[in-house]
Specification:
This protein has 338 residues and is α/β, with parallel strands linked by helices. Helix content is 38%, strand content 14%.
Length: 338
C-alpha cells in the first residue's frame, strides 16, 4: 500500500472533484500546492482526455494528486418514461433552439479509466455512486493507490469496507451536485453529516473524510474535531480563479434572485442539489429517474442555455453553503478556510 496518508496533509482540506467543467487540472494542482489535496474528475470525459488532464495536474502539482471515477450502476429509468419526458421538454427545445440529445446508457468508460489509474498512478482514487470490486480495489492498492469510497449511509460504508477501500468519504445531504448514493433510485438520506461522521468514526477503523455543505472555517474545525481526517469542499471553490465554472454558473451563485438550493432529478435523471431555477420548477414533477439517459437527453439544451447566458435553463450545482463561496485563488480561499 502507498505510504501516502490523508492525515499527513499540511492542510486537512480536499478540493472535491466536480465533473462537468468546474474541476480543472489547475484547480486540482492549486489545492495540492496550498497544502491540501486536489482531485481530477473523470466523469463525462473520454479515458484519453481524463489521462491528459490527470497528467497535466501532475505536472502542475508539487505534491499528491487525486482522481475520481463514477462507479457504474444499472439505470433506474425506463424507455417509456424517458420518452415521455422528452415530449414534455418540447418548450425548452423551442426556447433555446437546441434539439434534445439521444438518451443512452453507458458505464462512463469504467474499464478504460481504471487502466488510466493503473498507468498514471495518482496517490488517491475516489469513487462516486459505488465502489470498485474487491479485485479492482486490490489491483489499485498493489499499484500504490489509496482508494476512497464515497458513502451516504452506514450501510453503504459497510459495503465499501467489504470491497476493500482504504478511506471513506462521508457525504451529507447538503452536498452540491449528485449525491453519491449506491442506489440510483434512493431518495437522498437526511442523516446530518455530524451524525454520520460520529457513527462511522465509532464503527470503522479506516480514515473518514467529511464532505457535503462545508463552507466555513468553523464547520471544518467542527468535523475535524469530530474525527474526520480531512474536510472535502467543492462549492467553496466554484468561484476560484483556477476553476472552470462557466460565467453563468459564477454569476448565478452571486445573484440575489436565487435564494435556495433544491435536490432535483430534472437535469440528469439522478438526484442532485443545485440552485432552484425555472427549469427545476417547471420540470421536476414530471422528470423521471434514469441516469445517465436523462443527462444525455437534456445536455444540448443546457449547453444552449449557457450560450444564451440564461441560468434558468441549466443545472447550477451548489451545496447549501453556496453563499459563502468566495472569489480568489485557491490558496487565498484555503487560507480563509483555515
Amino acid at each position: 500500500m502507498s505510504a501516502f496518508d490523508l492525515r499527513d496533509l499540511t492542510v486537512p482540506i480536499i478540493v472535491a472533484p466536480m465533473a462537468g467543467g468546474p474541476s480543472t487540472p489547475e484547480l486540482a494542482a492549486a489545492g495540492t500546492n496550498a497544502g491540501g489535496l486536489g482531485f481530477v474528475p473523470a466523469g463525462y470525459l473520454t479515458a484519453e482526455v481524463f489521462a491528459e488532464r490527470l497528467a497535466r495536474a501532475r505536472q502542475l502539482a508539487t505534491g499528491p494528486i487525486g482522481a475520481n471515477l463514477f462507479a457504474p450502476q444499472p439505470s433506474a429509468g425506463t424507455p417509456a418514461a424517458i420518452q415521455a419526458y422528452a415530449a414534455a421538454l418540447a418548450p425548452e427545445v423551442e426556447r433555446y433552439g437546441a434539439a434534445l440529445g439521444s438518451p443512452r446508457f453507458d458505464d462512463d468508460a469504467w474499464a478504460a479509466k481504471l487502466d488510466v489509474l493503473l498507468d498514471l498512478r495518482p496517490e488517491v482514487a475516489s469513487f462516486t455512486f459505488g465502489v470498485p470490486s474487491a479485485d479492482e480495489c486490490r489491483s489499485l492498492r498493489d499499484a500504490g493507490i489509496v482508494t476512497v469510497g464515497t458513502v451516504t449511509t452506514q450501510a453503504e460504508a459497510q459495503m465499501a469496507i467489504a470491497a476493500g477501500v482504504d478511506v471513506l468519504a462521508a457525504q451529507s445531504p447538503s452536498a452540491g451536485g449528485h449525491r453519491g448514493t449506491f442506489d440510483p433510485s434512493a431518495q437522498p438520506a437526511s442523516e446530518p453529516l455530524e451524525q454520520l461522521l460520529a457513527a462511522l468514526s465509532a464503527s470503522v477503523d479506516v480514515p473518514v473524510i467529511a464532505a457535503g455543505g462545508l463552507s466555513t472555517a468553523e464547520e471544518i474545525r467542527r468535523v475535524i474535531e469530530g474525527g474526520a481526517a480531512a474536510a472535502q469542499l467543492g462549492t467553496a471553490f466554484l468561484l476560484a480563479d483556477e476553476a472552470g465554472s462557466s460565467g453563468v454558473h459564477r454569476a448565478a451563485l452571486k445573484d440575489p434572485q436565487f435564494t435556495e438550493t433544491v435536490v432535483t432529478r430534472s437535469f440528469s435523471g439522478r438526484y442532485a442539489r443545485g440552485l432552484r431555477n425555472r427549469f427545476v420548477n417547471e420540470h421536476e414533477a414530471e422528470a423521471p429517474l434514469g441516469y445517465p439517459e436523462v443527462h444525455y437527453l437534456t445536455s444540448p439544451v443546457r449547453a444552449a442555455a449557457v450560450r444564451a447566458g440564461d441560468p434558468h435553463g441549466v443545472n447550477v450545482w451548489a451545496g447549501t453553503g453556496y453563499r459563502n463561496a468566495r472569489v480568489g485563488s485557491v490558496a487565498d480561499i484555503i487560507a480563509v478556510l483555515t
